[in-house]
Amino acid sequence: MTDFIPESTDSLLTRERTAQALTEAGFPVRAKTLATKASRGGGPPYRKFGVRVLYRWDDALAWAQERLTAPVCNTSEQDARASS
């Protein structure tokens, strides 16, 4: 198994590497989804180096973690939180 998670939180990753690292970290996402979110909004912050898009690993991981819901023990609990 290839280790895609960078050692440094300041590492700059291509879109493909970012998707691979997030997936390996437990947040399954495709590079195409990141591209869509880059054009429509709602994705992690990125920078450009020429025409290449680069994501800082810490920013991408924080974005994924922010998308997690609060822990629940059953679906009824999740439904109750959604309707509040």
Task: Characterise the protein shown here.
The chain has 84 residues and is α+β, with helices and mostly antiparallel strands. Helices cover 46% and strands 13% of the residues. It is built from 4 helices and 3 strands. It has a 3-stranded antiparallel β-sheet. Strand 2 (47-49) and strand 3 (52-56) form a beta hairpin. The longest helix has 10 residues, at 15-24. The chain is elongated. The protein starts with 11 loop residues before the first strand and ends with a helix. The model has no long low-confidence stretch (mean pLDDT 92).
Secondary-structure topology with pairs:
Blueprint: E1 12-14, H1 15-24, H2 31-40, E2 47-49, E3 52-56, H3 57-66, H4 75-83
Jot down its keywords.
three-stranded antiparallel sheet; single chain; alpha+beta; 84 residues; 4 helices
Whole-number average pLDDT?
Answer: 92
Major sheet details:
3 strands, antiparallel
Amino- and carboxy-terminal Cα gap: 43 Å
How do the helices and strands follow one another from N- to C-terminus?
A: EHHEEHH
DSSP, total strands: 3
Helix content: 40-55%
| Contiguous helical run count | 4
- Shape field: elongated
Q: Largest beta sheet: what is the strand line-up?
A: 1-3-2
Helical/strand content category: alpha+beta
Pick out the low-confidence regions. Answer: none
Strand content: 5-15%
Radius of gyration: 15 Å
